[in-house]
Structure formats: C-alpha cells, structure tokens
C-alpha cells in the first residue's frame, strides 16, 4: 500500500525567521527518509519551506500481534524504491535535482532504521549529497510546530515510541517529564493486542470507549513530572482476562492514562510558563486526549494545537522538514560516521536552527 | 495568591494568623469519579505527610484545617523565597550551599521513610527559620532504596531541564548534603540505583 499526497501550502511563511534560501534564487530540494518503526516514508521539501510530497508505505502486523522488527524491515526494503520514486515523481524532480538527503537516524528499531540509513547512504554517495541525520522525536516536534505556527511551545510528544514533555532551552529540546517505562502508545497497543487487535490499536480503542457504560478504577501512577504505564497495563489486561467489559476497560484505560498525561503536562505548563501547548505524535490523533489537553491549556491561558492526522503518525515529511532546518544551519554527517542510534535521546540533539 | 498546576492557593486570615488555603479544584475534563478520588486522596495525604515530615525534623507548614471531601487544606503561611528563584538569581557558591541544604532536608525525610515524590526547587521555601518543604500531595512511605533513588532521580531531571549547565554541580551538592546525614555509603548505593533507573527509561544515555 503506497499512497501519496501533494501538499499545497504555497507561500507558507517559515516560522522561525531563519533564512532558508542560502544559494541565491535557486530553489533547493531535499529528500527525507523515515524508517524508525512500521512506516517507510519519503518526502520532498524545498528551500522555500514547502512540503511537496509525503509518500509512505506502512507495515501492518497480523491481528493480535505487534511489530516484528525483522518483518517490518523486510517490508521496508521491499517498498523503499517505490516510495522514494513516488515522492520524487510527485514533486516533479529527479534524484539528481536534490541538494541533501535526510534520514531518521534514531531512536527506533534497529533493523528498520538500517534500511532507511542504507538507502539514504546509497543515494547520498551516488549523487555526492550531504547526508543529514534526523532525530525522529525532533522530526515529530518540528513538523507539528510548523503546522501550528508556534514558535516556543511546550510539547507533549505521544506515540508508540515516545511519551515525553519537552520545551526548547539552551540549544536543545529539554525533557521536563517522561515515561519511566512504556509509552502511552505501547499501553494502548499492548492492551489492544490482548484484546485481539493489530497495532496500532488506538483508533479501535477510542471507538470502543464511546460505548462504555461505567468507569473502572485503574492504577494511576504519577511520580513528580514523570508517569509510569506498566502497572495500569497489567491491571487492565488482568481485568480483561477475568471477563470485564472491553468497552468499559477501553474507556477507563483512556480516561486514566490521559489524566496522567494531562496532570504532568499541566505541571510542566505551570512550571515553564509557556504560552503555547502543542501535542505531537501518533496518539495526538485521539480526540479525547486533545479535548482534555485543550482544557488544560485554557486553564493556563495558553494556545493549544494538536498536529493534524496527516503529520501525527510517522512520515517522511517530519524527517524532510527537520532535515531542511538542519541543512539550513549546516548540520550534516560524513558517510563513514552515519550510523543509526537506536536509543538517541531527544535532549542530546543540538538544534542550531532554534538557538 | 497563585494558580498552580494542581491547586489554587489563597492567602487568608485564620483566626488572626496569615494562612494559605489550598484548594484542589475540580477539573471538568477529568472523569468525575477519578477527579474526586484524586482530590480527596491527595488532600488527606498532604495533611498527613506535612505532619509526618515535621516529626522527622523537617520544617513544614502547620496544618490548621483539612477537608478531604471538599479537597481543601488550610495551613500556615510561610514567608520566604522559593529555591527555584534563588537558584536562578544567587551567586554560584551560594546556590551550591542551598543545594546542600536541600540534600540534608531530603535525607531527613528519607530517614523517616517519607518519599516526597515531587522534589523540585519550587517546593522548597527559604524562610527565616530555614528551608521549608511543601507539596506533599504525592508523598508515600517506603523503606525501599529504589523509591529513594526515584525520588532523587526526579530532582535530578528537574535540575537538568531548568539549570542545564549547572545541573551536575547542583545535584552533586544535593548528594553531599544527603550524605552528611545518611553517610557516603548510602549515597554510593543510591548513585548506582539512579543510574539503573536512567538506563531503564526510554532511550537512556548508554555509555
């Protein structure tokens, strides 16, 4: 399954005030490649700040199971050529017209990351282009910030790979709170898996929750600015096995898990006193979570924005866009050093385009 | 007086004494049962632990009145400046001393098996009498070394995100203060444990 989208946002104003077009009048194109988990994505951006294409192919595991890294990476290597071809063709350019290649260098699943990195290296070395390593979390945050038009937000990043609260200071995205174990995406997916659904199961659970009749009390674990979801997952799975209603559990799981997220977000908002609250990542597609966060923002007179579903999940555009920001400030990596980093923490990435 | 993340604070007069009324407001966006349970639980817990902490020799506001159902707590007003601001404005050496003092207070709490669970410089007020600890809503009792390490780990992350370049020095001073009460051996065990917690987290800094 490959689908391609042309995104028409002509004359989009670049929000950070960085001069993008450094080579004079010539428009520069860049390719971003995403392959951290289930999605292989490719996207073309240009130096005026437009995202021209965002092609992707998503590996779907069998019902009741999660992502098998080897199977996902096999999917990626099979689809890579087609997806990249679609991204370039949609933008009306050829690979030789590119000025840089950005790839997701981590964090993520090793076998999957290696496919994207290998493809990126091959194109970069063949056409002699600078190679830009993009941190996947930075990609999620920057594309959401672009879309929202926010310049200095407090960000809640919620996905299968991440659950953290971040704000920018001293040249990096600093972490103000995070999960101490699994992510909110994993909580939903693993509970969904126990109920027999394929990952990602968030949408399915959100639907089921609407038919719930009662709230079941589940473990609520907030430690300072951090959350922990392992206890609530075990409790919910046990209750499901002992015959509690799936709808009630889906509802209670969402209510309790999201309340924990809202609490730590609100604490970070009060602490950092930011005036913008942004939610990014796949779980940002959940309406109930956004409704709750919107109320949190209101209470603190902050603007609220959730990334649109187009850029909520993993996509090439997040890598291409963050790659463009990095390219504009001269960030690149020599081919021989272009390793992948499975556990590349957000707060270890320098972000010169924001400093 | 102040709208915090969790509660609204009012400066009031309590039979002639300046007092703080802390109201854990109902949050419309939360599931009502969960909302009520959290507010009640934390209010009664906070009152309990403010008292327990004082029994351990830690300065805390005196509780005047508590209403768990209504999620209201009235306590002594503490005059002073929060450590959060002091650490941003005072000279480096003075900051290190303040951190050391904070470490001593934390050690006293831990000595009494009290895990504060929200150790941030915002929750320490420097008053005339010394360093006062507030916000015990998330506190619990434990004898486990793991819980002590989690408590300190949280403080470490907060220091890192707020005082980035000075964070390591600040945290070391906290540990120095801590060891002056509970001994270097305990601190060494805790350091290992904190490292373990960091590695267990997502995308840990792997050395």
List the helices and strands and how they pair.
The complex is a heterodimer of chains A (355) and B (207).
Chain A: E1 29-34, E2 39-46, E3 51-58, H1 69-91, E4 98-106, H2 110-127, E5 131-135, H3 136-148, E6 154-158, E7 163-169, E8 172-178, H4 184-194, H5 202-209, E9 222-223, E10 226-227, H6 230-241, H7 246-272, E11 276-280, H8 287-299, E12 303-306, H9 309-312, H10 316-328
Chain B: E1 2-3, E2 8-14, E3 17-23, H1 32-55, E4 63-67, E5 72-76, E6 81-82, H2 83-89, H3 92-111, E7 114-115, E8 124-127, E9 130-133, E10 140-141, H4 145-162, H5 167-182, H6 184-200
Antiparallel strand pairs in B: 1-2, 2-3, 3-5, 4-5, 6-8, 7-10, 8-9
Helix pairs in contact in B: 2-3, 3-5, 4-5, 4-6, 5-6
Descriptive key words:
heterodimer; A: 355 residues; alpha/beta; Nucleotidyltransferase, domain 5; 2 domains; five-stranded mixed β-sheet; 10 helices; 12 strands; globular; B: alpha+beta; Phosphorylase Kinase, domain 1; Transferase(Phosphotransferase), domain 1; three-stranded antiparallel β-sheet; 6 helices; 10 strands
Task: Characterize the structure shown.
The complex is a heterodimer of chains A (355) and B (207). Chain A is α/β, with parallel strands linked by helices and 355 residues long. Chain A has two domains: 2-141 and 314-354, 2-Layer Sandwich (Nucleotidyltransferase, domain 5); 153-311, 2-Layer Sandwich (Nucleotidyltransferase, domain 5). Chain A contains ten helices and twelve strands. Chain A has helices at 69-91, 110-127, 136-148, 184-194, 202-209, 230-241, 246-272, 287-299, 309-312, 316-328; strands at residues 29-34, 39-46, 51-58, 98-106, 131-135, 154-158, 163-169, 172-178, 222-223, 226-227, 276-280, 303-306. In chain A, strands 3-2-1-4-5 form a five-stranded mixed sheet, with helices on both faces. A five-stranded mixed sheet of chain A has the order 8-7-6-11-12, sandwiched between helices. A two-stranded antiparallel ribbon of chain A has the order 9-10. In chain A, α4 runs parallel beside α6 and α6 (230-241) runs antiparallel to α7 (246-272). Chain A is globular and about 60 Å long. Chain A starts with 28 loop residues before the first strand and ends in a 27-residue tail after the last helix. Chain B folds into two domains: 2-76, Phosphorylase Kinase, domain 1 (2-Layer Sandwich), CATH 3.30.200.20; 81-206, Orthogonal Bundle (Transferase(Phosphotransferase), domain 1). Chain B contains six helices and ten strands, in the order βββαβββααββββααα. In chain B, α4 (145-162) packs antiparallel against α5. Chains A and B meet through β7, β8, β9, α7 and α8 of A and α1 and α4 of B.
């Amino acid at each position: 399954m490959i689908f391609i989208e042309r995104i028409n946002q002509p004359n989009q104003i670049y929000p950070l005030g960085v001069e993008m077009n450094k080579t004079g009048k010539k428009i520069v194109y860049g390719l971003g490649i995403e392959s951290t988990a289930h999605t292989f994505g490719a996207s073309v951006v240009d130096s005026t700040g437009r995202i021209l294409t965002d092609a992707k192919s998503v590996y779907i595991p069998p019902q009741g199971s999660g992502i098998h890294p080897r199977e996902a990476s096999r999917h990626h290597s099979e689809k890579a050529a087609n997806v990249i071809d679609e991204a370039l063709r949609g933008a009306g350019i050829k690979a030789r017209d590119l000025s840089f290649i950005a790839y997701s260098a981590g964090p993520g699943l090793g076998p999957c990351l290696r496919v994207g990195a290998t493809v990126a290296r091959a194109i970069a070395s063949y056409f002699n282009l600078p190679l830009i390593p993009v941190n996947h979390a930075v990609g999620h945050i920057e594309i959401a910030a672009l879309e929202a038009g926010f310049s200095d937000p407090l960000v809640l990043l919620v996905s299968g790979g991440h659950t953290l609260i971040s704000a920018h200071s001293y040249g990096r995205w600093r972490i103000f709170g995070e999960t101490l174990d699994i992510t909110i995406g994993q909580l939903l997916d693993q509970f969904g898996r126990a109920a027999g659904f394929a990952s990602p199961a968030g949408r399915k659970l959100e639907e089921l929750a609407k038919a719930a009749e009662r709230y079941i009390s589940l473990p609520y674990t907030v430690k300072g600015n951090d959350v922990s979801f392992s206890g609530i997952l075990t409790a919910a799975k046990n209750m499901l096995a002992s015959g509690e209603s799936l709808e009630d559990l889906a509802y209670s799981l969402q209510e309790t898990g999201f309340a924990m997220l809202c609490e730590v977000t609100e604490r970070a908002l009060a602490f950092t006193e930011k005036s913008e609250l942004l939610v990014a990542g796949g779980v940002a597609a959940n309406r109930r979570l956004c409704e709750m966060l919107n109320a949190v923002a209101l209470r603190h007179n902050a603007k609220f924005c959730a990334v649109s579903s187009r850029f909520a999940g993993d996509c090439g555009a997040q890598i291409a866009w963050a790659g463009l920001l990095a390219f504009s400030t001269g960030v690149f990596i020599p081919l021989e050093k272009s390793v992948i980093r499975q556990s590349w923490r957000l707060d270890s990435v320098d972000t010169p385009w924001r400093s | 007086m102040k709208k915090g993340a969790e509660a609204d604070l009012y400066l009031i007069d309590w039979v002639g004494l300046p007092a703080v009324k802390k109201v854990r407001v109902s949050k419309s966006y939360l599931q009502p049962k969960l909302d009520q349970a959290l507010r009640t639980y934390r209010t009664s817990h906070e009152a309990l632990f403010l008292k327990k902490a004082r029994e351990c020799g830690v300065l805390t506001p005196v509780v005047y009145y508590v209403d768990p159902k209504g999620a209201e707590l009235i306590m002594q007003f503490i005059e002073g400046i929060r450590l959060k601001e002091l650490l941003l404005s005072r000279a480096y050496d003075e900051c290190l001393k303040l951190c050391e003092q904070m470490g001593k207070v934390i050690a006293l709490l831990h000595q009494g098996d009290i895990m504060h669970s929200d150790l941030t410089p915002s929750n320490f007020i420097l008053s005339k009498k010394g360093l006062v600890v507030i916000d015990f809503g998330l506190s619990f009792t434990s004898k486990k070394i793991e819980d002590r390490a989690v408590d300190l780990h949280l403080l470490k992350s907060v220091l890192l995100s707020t005082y980035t370049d000075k964070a390591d020095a600040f945290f070391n001073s906290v540990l120095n203060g801590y060891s002056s009460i509970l001994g270097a051996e305990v601190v060494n065990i805790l350091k290992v444990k904190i490292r373990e917690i960091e590695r267990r987290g997502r995308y840990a800094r792997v050395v």
